[in-house]
Amino acid sequence: MRAVGRKVGRDPRDGRSGFAARPGPFAGAGGDTAEQDDLHQYMAIPFLRGLLPGAVLEPIRLHVDAKRYLCTMEPGYWETLSPASQHSLVLQGGPFTPKEAMQFAAQPFAQEAIRLRRYDDHAKVPGLVTPPLGYYMALVQRLAPVPAAIAAAAELAPVAA
Predict the structure, then answer these.
(1) What is the DSSP string of 94-126?
(2) Could you list the pLDDT tens digit for every one of the 161 residues in the chain?
(3) What distance in Å separates the CA atoms of residue 36 and residue 128, rounded to the nearest whole number?
(4) What is the DSSP string of the chain?
(5) Which residues pair with 49 in a beta bridge?
(6) Structural domains in the chain?
(7) How many Å apart are CA 11 and CA 148, to the nearest integer?
(8) Which whole-number Å values give the CA distances from 143 to 56, 57, 137, in the listed order?
């Protein structure tokens, strides 16, 4: 996310997930002053469903659960979280029980969600430059499937000489 996945040469779908998982100024207030979970992992999905495949949308939906999983399964992970992320984790239900962690890990796209979570963690660096919105829009345009109706219309459209 925020250029981290791009710098490590990961699948471009990870960048799309990272962008969509952080709706930024559209998400409203939150952080360490929120009093309830903002459910940000669900905010972008209704707008992106139909444009992006499940391989992009499911890690977005699961990235909060990935944080809960890592707090249970990875000793010391909690301590690496920012105060705001620790606070939001409490609002999101806290660390999973071992049984919940095993159930999470068995889901499709759980590993991708964990990778997205790590991008999120590594991107929280003061002063880290975020590419402009146009970078992400171009990425989505290159990689999003074109709806069949639009593709069919494009094939029938006359080509300018």
Answers:
(1) -SPPHHHHHHHHTSTTHHHHHHHHHHHHHH--T
(2) 444 444 444 554 454 444 444 444 344 444 445 566 556 665 677 777 777 788 888 998 898 999 999 999 999 999 999 888 898 889 889 999 999 999 999 999 999 999 999 988 888 778 888 888 888 878 777 776 655 555 555 555 555 54
(3) 28
(4) -TTHHHHTT--HHHHHHHHHH--GGGG-S-GGG-SS---GGGTSHHHHBTTB-HHHHHHHHHHHHHHHHHHHHSTTHHHHS-HHHHHHHHHTT-SPPHHHHHHHHTSTTHHHHHHHHHHHHHH--TTPPPPPHHHHHHHHHHHSPPPHHHHHHHHHSPPP-
(5) 52
(6) 4-156 (1.10.3210.10)
(7) 24
(8) 11, 13, 10
Other beta carbons less than 10 A from residue 6's beta carbon = 17
The tokens describing 68, both together, are: 């809960």
What does the alpha-carbon distance between residue 95 and residue 68 come to, in Å, rounded to a whole number? 4
Q: By CB neighbour count within 10 A (0-12 exposed, 13-18 middle, 19+ buried), where does 66 fall?
A: buried
Provide the residue type at 39 as one letter.
L
